[in-house]
Amino acid sequence: MSDLELARAAVSDLAAASSVVYPVLQWAVAVARGSSGLPELWVATNEGNGFIPAGVFIPRAMALAARFDADFDFRWFGWTHPAETAVRAIQARGDTVSAVATSWPHDSDLVRELTPDFAIGVTPRGNPSEATAATLTRSRAHRLETLDASLFLDMQRSEDVVVDSYALLVTQEAVFNAGPELPAVAQSVARGILSRHWPSEADWSALASEYEGTVLMASAQRPGLFGIEDHTQLETYRTEFMQCRRMEVLMAWRGGNVVDVIYAARCAGVALPLAAVAGS
């Protein structure tokens, strides 16, 4: 399999896995060749700094095109064209770009200048539930591991009651202390969760509708649509992204996975240590 075929297959599978749970997301996979000559795959999305939706698991062998340099993360946060983010990450590490594939349907002069092996508009492959990236296996990482592997490991070693208490703590911080006031329905659902009074289906449905609308709004604000850096646009998008993640904290409770709760809270800027539970 050529490097381009490798990248295309990876994008197709990731796009399939996320197509239902987060349809506004675009993926890119770039193949780098370093001093060893061996291929290294870099993956990027056009949401936040390599945001990964719940239920999608990237291979552990893949490098995320984010979180290796704070300046890089700040500058290219939510950049519309994920292929450009991926190749910029490879360039920043001093390696050579061999091939790139992306689900984003638009071309890129930046990528074309680096390699002729560039596939755009890669479509999802097969049923979303049957995508390899939709199943967590030993060779694939939970999305929290891409943010904080040590926290994920500590949680795996902790008792369920500790993890649950930690999830409640970060939920409170994310909803009520991490930014502007959230919509009334989000606050209502949060109070129900925190007081152990499970929200009604009507409240969950109202929150889901509010969340989906916020995600669409954020996706329309992503910087770089015309290839131009605009700091005002970046800050507008960043605000919308944070709002999405704070609401996603609550939506993750409905899904029943507290690890996803914690991932969303971390993306929203809540970075409390697990030990904070002892002092709460």
Describe this structure as you would to a colleague.
This protein is an alpha/beta fold. The protein folds into two domains: 3-141, no CATH class; 146-279, no CATH class. It is 49% helix and 10% strand. The chain has eleven helices and seven strands. The strands form two sheets. A five-stranded mixed β-sheet has the order 4-2-1-5-6. Helix 7 packs parallel to helix 11 (258-267), helix 8 crosses helix 9 (201-219) and helix 10 packs antiparallel against helix 11.
Secondary structure layout plus pairing:
Layout (H helix, E strand, L loop, with lengths): L2 H16 L8 E7 L5 E7 L12 E2 L3 E2 L5 H6 L6 H11 L3 E7 L6 H6 L3 E2 L20 E2 L1 H5 L1 H9 L2 H18 L6 H11 L6 H19 L11 H25 L2 H10 L13
Parallel strand pairs: 2-4, 5-6
Antiparallel strand pairs: 1-2, 1-5, 3-7
Briefly characterize the structure:
The protein is an alpha/beta fold.
Q: Write the H/E string, N to C.
A: HEEEEHHEHEEHHHHHHH
> If strands are numbered along the chain, what order do they take across the biggest sheet?
4-2-1-5-6
Query: What is the overall shape?
Result: globular
Beta strands, count: 7
Number of domains: 2
Provide the structure class: alpha/beta
Question: What is the share of helical residues?
Answer: 40-55%
Beta-strand percentage range: 5-15%
Oligomer description: single chain
Q: How many DSSP helices?
A: 11
Query: Could you report the average pLDDT, rounded to the nearest whole number?
Result: 96
Distance between the termini: 53 Å
Q: What are the segments in which pLDDT stays under 50 over at least 5 consecutive residues?
A: none
The radius of gyration over CA amounts to 19 Å
Strand count, sense and barrel status of the largest sheet are: 5 strands, mixed
